Amino acid sequence: MIRDNGLASRLWRFAIWAVVVLFVLNLLGVIIAVVVNSLSTRWLGTWLPAGWTSHWYVDAWREFQLTPVLIVTFEIVFAVVIISGLVGVTTAYALARRDFPGKRLMVLIFLLPLLLPPLTYGIPLATVLYRLGVGGTFWGVVLANLVPAIPFVVLVMIPFIEQIDPRIEQAARVFGASTTSLFVRILLPLLLPGMLAALLLVLVRTLAMFELTFLTAGPTSQTLVVSLYYAVFASGVRASQSIDAMAVVYMVTTLFWLIIALQFVNPTQIVARAKQQPANP
Amino acid sequence: MMSVVTAGASPGPSLRKRLAARGLDGTTLLVLPGIVATLLLFVYPFLYGVVDSLAPKEGPWFTNYVKFFSEPFQYDTIFATLWLALPVTIINVLVAIPIAFRVRLMRRQRLLTTILVLPVTLGTVLVADGLLNYLGPRGWFNRSLMFLDLIDHPLRLTNNYWGVFASLVITGFPFAFLLTLSYVSGIDPAIEQAAATLGAKARQRFMRIFLPLLAPGLIVTFCLAFVQAFSVFPSAVLLGAPSGPTRVISIAAYQAAFEQYDHSMGAAIAIIMGLVQLVVILAVLSLRQVLYRGPAAGGKG
Predict the structure, then answer these.
(1) Which of A100, B168, B179, B210 supports an S-S bond with B23, CB 3.0-4.6 Å?
(2) Residue A279, SS3?
């Protein structure tokens, strides 16, 4: 490690850390303010609320009908995870192992949904889905969420598959493995860590995906994040503590999966697809 | 010997073998589910949207576009969006670079990076809800500034431009930072050591070694961060002034499609939105051609 110890570079280092600390403090302030408000009896114009209570959670659970919302959310999210996993991994396998005419175009088509704002393709997609009568239903929401999920799995899995030596598969073939046993006994165990990582990330992303669900959901197919949006949008109708209690429920749901995901992936991989581990750990 | 002759006498390899030689065999067919799903759910609706936008409720095919570009109420949304997305993206990327360079040297990056991933996954709606409380006139932010005697009256930070700006920084900065960090840590530290051995100062090492190697990565970071900031929607409604300065283009598209039930106009605005974003991205990418020519990969062997 190289370090300059002049005054200027010390000041520079201090400034950089000050920015980081300020950012993290404000971020924690935002999150803690939500948690504190959700637990407060009355909080007006003071540092801390007048008293503490947990009854807003009971209220929020009843007012926003969180049980059905949570059930629908997880049904939708798991459907998206399973379908995008099956479709995405097979596609990624073919793209990683074979070089064929038109492959670059195909990769471009998979990149586009990740490069365009969800609303840009979401509005025509919602129109088509409503015209087909799927809009507003459970499957409409699942289909809309598959649009960014499948390319995401494909692009995360390609480098994972590429790093598996094809000679392992060839060796298994030589010893007479059928396609099924090649897949179950060789590929699946080797791909499992990558698949878990990709699918957990899809899960977290789909939980947080607002726009596509917002455009395609009907009254019975809203996910947690869309219900939260409507609650905040209509704030004033309900107590802010109750809304924040719902926000905490949402935060805990996402955090739970995020923490599991972080056991399998380096956070920098979440955003930097197709990037190997850095050489220096 | 005999078999060689018969093989040579046959009219050439079978179709199956010729296709396999070009990379088309049973394994290649595994792309079908993925590509069919994407064609049906992304390409077809998108093309449908293009056609739909050219078939307005009344008037000739270009009516929607003329309507959009003749009403300031509509076309101003482009500038409102850019006025939010461009400064936020530039700040996020510029601040991310020095921090990524610091964090790269840390032994324990994990805790910091984990804290920074939080807002990316919490999503814009939750951040907007939290900021409404935190930045509000009686929130902790204003209270702290007043406690420190930096201000006399609470600043107005919600339901205007700055609320949306703050939410875009909170969700966008971590994203830009993580991306930059992964590019920075992809550069072999030996290169820096070599330069330092030859007597290059920190500024020279950054300007002449890291910056050229990082340029492609930074451009990608800028584009991805811009895409995120440009598609701002829930926070512009919840935290901003959705009928005033933060009436962004996604609000215009949503209102046309789902509040006025004019799906044709909604599709037109959505396509204008995609085009404006593409123009900015292409401009940034062409900047890369000017700044940097050479291999796109980092300096890792």
Answers:
(1) A100
(2) coil
CA distance B181 to B273: 30
Question: E strands, chain A, where?
Answer: none
Beta-carbon contacts of B290 under 8 Å, excluding residues fewer than 6 positions away, are none
Amino acid letter, residue B62: F
B259 CB near a chain A CB, below 8 Å? no
DSSP state of B262: -
Burial B205-216 (b: 16+ CB within 10 A, else e): bbeebbeebbbb
Contact B188, B300 (CB under 8 A): yes
The structure tokens 């056991």 sit at A263
Task: Tell me phi and psi for residue A54, to 5 degrees.
Answer: -115, 10
C-alpha distances (whole Å) from A127 to each of A40, A76, B60 are 43, 20, 21
- Which residues 174-203 in chain B show a CB within 8 A of chain A? 175, 178-179, 181-183, 185-186, 188-189, 192-193, 196, 201-202
Cα–Cα dist B54/B36, whole Å:
26
Neighboring chain A residues of B25 at a CB cutoff of 8 Å: 98
3-class DSSP state for residue A80? helix
Q: What is this model's ipTM?
A: 0.82
Contact (CB, 8 A) for B122 and B170: no
B120: left (phi over 0), alpha (psi -120 to 50) or beta: alpha
Distance CA B261, CA A133 (A): 16
Mutate to test the interface with A, among B42, B213, B285 (most CBs of A within 10 A): B42
**B121: Cβ–Cβ under 8 A, 6 or more apart, which residues?**
A204, A205, A207, A208, A254, A255, A258
Task: Give me the residues of A, 10-69, that contact B with CB < 8 A.
Answer: 12-13, 16-17, 19-20, 23-24, 26-31, 33-34, 37, 44-45, 47
Phi and psi (nearest 5°) for A220? -100, 5
A257, closest residue in chain B (CA to CA): B121
Q: What is the pLDDT along chain A (281 residues), one digit of tens a residue?
A: 566 667 888 888 889 889 988 999 999 988 888 888 888 887 777 777 777 888 888 888 888 888 888 999 999 999 999 999 999 999 998 898 888 888 889 888 998 888 888 888 999 999 999 999 888 899 999 999 999 999 999 988 888 888 888 888 888 888 888 878 888 888 888 888 888 888 988 998 898 889 899 999 888 888 888 988 888 888 767 778 888 888 888 888 888 888 888 877 776 665 544 344 433 33
Cα Rg, chain B, nearest whole Å: 26
Q: Which of B232, B204, B219, B203 is nearest to B282 (CA)?
A: B219
Is residue A215 a contact partner of residue A147, using CB atoms and an 8 Å limit? Answer: no
